[in-house]
Amino acid sequence: MNDASARTSRFSKSGKMNWPRFQKLALDLLWYVVVILLALAVMVPFIWMIVTSLKGQTEVFAYPPTWIPQQPQWENYLDVWQEAPFGRYFLNSTIVAVSVTIGQLTACVLAAFAFARMNFKGKNTMFLLFLSTTMISSQVTLVPSYLIMRSLNWIDHYQALIVPFLANAFGVFMIRQSFRTVPRELEEAAILDGCGRFRFLVQILLPLCKPILASQALFAFMGNWNSYLWPLIVTNRDDMRTLQIGLRYFVSGEGGTQWGLYMAAAVLISVPVILIYFLVQKTFVESMASTGLKDI
Amino acid sequence: MSTKTKIQGRLPAGQKRRWWRRWGEETFAAYLFLLPSLVIFIAFTFFPAVYSVVISLFRWNMPMQPVFLGFDFENYVYLFTDAIEGPIFWKSFLNTFYFALGVPINLFVSLLIALLLNRRMRGVGIFRTTFFLPAITSMTAVSVVWLWLFHPAQYGLFNSLLIELGLPIQRWLRDPLLAMPCLIGMGVWYGMGYNIIIFLAGLQSIPRTYYEAAKIDGANQLSLFRHVTWPLLGPTLFYVLSVGMINSLKAFTEIDVMTQGGPLGSTTTLAYYLYQNAFQFFQMGKASAIAVMLFIMLLLLTWIQFRFIDRKVHYE
What we know:
The complex is a heterodimer.
Chain A: H1 2-13, H2 19-53, H3 57-60, H4 76-83, H5 86-117, H6 123-132, H7 142-151, H8 158-162, H9 169-180, H10 184-192, H11 197-208, H12 210-225, H13 229-234, H14 243-252, H15 259-279, H16 281-291
Helix pairs in contact in A: 1-2, 2-15, 4-15, 5-9, 5-12, 5-14, 14-15
Chain B: H1 2-10, H2 16-55, E1 58-59, E2 67-68, H3 74-81, H4 85-100, H5 102-117, H6 124-136, H7 139-149, H8 157-164, H9 179-204, H10 208-216, H11 221-250, H12 253-258, H13 270-279, H14 284-315
Antiparallel strand pairs in B: 1-2
């Protein structure tokens, strides 16, 4: 497609023909029309979410539905915090997602360093063992993991939401790949200068591998912030719920008709992750395209 | 191990003993580095995986004590053949595959859009971001929004559209026939962005020279796609397909938020059936039997996925 258009423009530059140039223009225009229509269609749920979040109870159930709220109810966004303890949910989600991100990254970096930079007995076996964990999905271990949490008395505690996610084989694998690109000579020089193994990791290797660390941190944070099934089963008390679970119970609560408020809550939950995404968009998309990983 | 021989080969013969001593220290240090991850994996992955198989051999109705059923795989046989439970299980089994139909649909739509976006045009980045936006939004929030879009009365957005078109309104998620297609439709919308990114990366890795060569040989747009793009995109395609299938088999959030497996069990997939058995009926043994079956299915898919990761690497 690209080449075709490049060729036609070359034709028009010679000034011999005007038809290919017109054709290219028409094609470009058609392309924009199609893509904009598609993009709008994809955006409809988001637009409708925001529009509804600004509607009062009567306007929500008005027929025909309005695309521009008659009297924007900004207070919906304030009311949400009172209707359910969303402040608390927000705190819980933040504590859990930040702890998991920091802890998981630390554990991954350490393991990745061993695999990338050290020779030890049983290295291959260990690596296979790590890789094999990616085959065991969370659904399969759901029941036993829940039973373990129960017998540890971790239900309704932060530990239950954090500790099981501190190890991640995909993370180890990706960081290991990045560590291996740093030349051996650098390590040898550092060791000659009296630099220890751990210091080499912290002071030299980590700064060199910032991009992969950033994207791994992002995967960990987003995956955890958005996780649903596990927090659903290991939290019972309302004040231990994360945002996702809080939203679920808020929507399925009695009545179940306050769509203006529900949409405001949905907006509030989506905003932090979308903000982070826009801040680090480039790293994120690139690393996803190269690794092909979405969930952790 | 190749690294070992390489390093030993580099050392003079006299230093061999000293190297061995150092090797012992290095091994010790390495395991120290692995320890945090290893402990977590053993406690929360390997042990539960084995435990799951063990529990699946017990009858364990939660407040009561577990009863060992022997090695007759009674829970499995029960799920497959029981007069009451059997049909429910088989239905959820079929529903799992019905739901997975969304994956090829998603693939088709994403590929079309990726081909459309694989063009150097002003503002193409904005469109890519737009299509990707659903994929980063939390599934819970998205499900709540679609619950509202699919509202069964006339003020639901889709119903108001139907009225506009002069068609009868639908009950969408409350209609046993429509509920699953609704979930699939939402899944396509949600998963599209991710696939588009992968496809775009795949499309851009195809060398431009191939197209030029084919064009010199007189290939038109259609045959370019048929003979250059399609075969070279093959590994990406299979990779996306297997990842999609795995995610589809594991799908839970949208089902729980939007339909709770209903109406009349029409959206109960295996993953949801497992959850119901474990955390609503408290039948841990039966739930574990379902988990083991799900595990086998996922294992098969993961194995396929890894095979195609290899092939993808070979192409590059």
